[in-house]
Amino acid sequence: MANLILASSSQYRRKLLSRLQLPFESHSPEIDESPKFGESPEDMVKRLSEEKARALASQYNHHFIIGSDQVAVLGANVLTKPGGFDAAFEQLKSQSGKRVLFLTGLALLNTNTNVIQVDMVTTEVAFRQLTNQEITNYLLQDEPYDCAGSFKSEGLGITLFEGIYGTDPTALVGLPLIRLGEMLRNFDK
Description:
Elements: E1 3-7, H1 11-18, E2 24-27, H2 41-55, E3 63-74, E4 77-79, H3 85-95, E5 99-110, E6 115-127, H4 132-142, E7 161-165, H5 169-173, H6 177-188
Parallel strand pairs: 1-2, 1-3
Antiparallel strand pairs: 3-4, 3-5, 5-6, 6-7
Helix pairs in contact: 3-4
């Protein structure tokens, strides 16, 4: 297998990828992650995943480059990383008692052939009814300000849910390992 590059500066994605016990390097792709006018959340996470992978292609030939992106969708609203307590509080308050879709884009680029596989994994999260005090306590303990949707499901954030519905539990954290394994095997054929 060619060398593996994770096009991300995310500590969460690095930790997930290390579970596959494959050697890899991680580098930030430094792209503009702004949505395009009229772009659906589904199209956006796929596009950004591909752009992240392609952004490093000129630096790493003979590599497999992984790009991934995630957004949360609540009704017509896209929830991104809150950046701080106040925005995180508002996000969690808006999600209380509701179901939220988490869209995780994934791209795997083979720089030897310039062939890329792009997909998206959807996870639905059912939030329980949350009080203001529960939200405050949670945010002060887990500090999920760099996480789409304002929680860490691999941490204390799991206590905010009634249920998680999807095919790959790692997709909710930000890198769908089941789908990534399939993509890697596709290139191995």
